[in-house]
Amino acid sequence: MAAEKAAHGAEGGLALDPMHQFEIVRHIPIKFVGIDASFTNSSLWMVISVAVISIILLSGSRKLIPGRLQSVGELGYEFIANMVRDTMGNEGRKFFPFIFTLFMFVLATNMLGMVPYSFTVTSHIIVTFTLAMTVFIGATIFGFYKNGLGYLKLFAPDGVPIVMLPLLIVIEVISYLSRPISLSVRLFANMMAGHTMLKVFGAFVVALGWMGVVPLAVMVAFTGLEVLIAFLQAFVFAILSCMYINDALHPHH
Amino acid sequence: MEADAAKLIGAGIAAVAMAGAGVGIGNIFGSYLQGALRNPAAAASQQTNLFIGFALAEATGLFGLLISFILLFGV
To answer: Which residues are bridge partners to A36 per DSSP?
Structure first.
């Protein structure tokens, strides 16, 4: 890779490296029992995201007629509460805090990633994979806790001919095990590809000089699209988590 | 063939998987619009299913993109 980068620099084409924005920088190096637990720019932006969520949700007044900040909080609450009720039914209400936290964290990190010169936490697969694994392991343990071994019926739907069962069980197990991968890769790839694309197109604007006005207009549209995707992916992440927990709640579909 | 060149070509071929995701996503939103224009009253209630279908269709394509990322930056 180093040789490739040097070659690019020598050509003098795109001087901006689109992957530079994903670099992890240690701000405060911390060694914890041999593990590198440094406070990086990723950690910093996670803290900022949590701070922004806290400011929006906590600093608003609690009036009967909400102000602007309180409205935002109430809107988010109602949105997620409706989604949880629609996908999981009344039984799923106890998972509302978890889903709300998940949605708000992913949304805040995605949106703060759109700020120029910021760092997109969700563009690293380790972050999204940890979130997805939390949902997956939690849902699996809860499914066995609630249904006992009956949870395994999830892999063998009712009304399937006996001949088909061996094949179907294999397929269902594979699709179940690939859930955390697809959940994490979707968010990570969307954020990473989107930000790389913005950077590459941004380099076109710079390279074209005054003619760069044309790609600049496209850039504005793409930035709007990226904001939409940032919201959509947070929503999709939350709703698929709901679906997985719903499978644990009601394994008979 | 040089190994580096083969890696880049492989990454390019792996990214073709996104074409399938594009077809799938277009199909989902197209079908949704068709249904929604025929019966606008039922459109809002199906939005959850729309986004689940969208997410599932996109995931299959993104697996290919992931392979391409691994080839470019991982191996």
So the answer is: A31
- Of A14-28, A201-215, A236-250, B28-42, give the lowest mean pLDDT range: A14-28
Token pair 């949704």 is found at B32
Q: If interface means Cβ-Cβ distance under 8 Å, which residues of chain A face chain B?
A: 1, 4, 19, 83, 86-87, 182, 185-186, 189-190, 192-193, 232, 235-236, 239-240, 243
Tell me the pTM. 0.84
Separation CA A190–CA B38 (nearest Å):
32
How far is the C-alpha of A73 from the C-alpha of A97, rounded, in Å? 14
pLDDT tops 50 at residue A5: no
Domain count along chain B: 1
- What mean pLDDT do residues A122-138 have? 94
Please give the residue range of the domain that contains residue B60. 3-74
CATH number at residue B49: 1.20.20.10
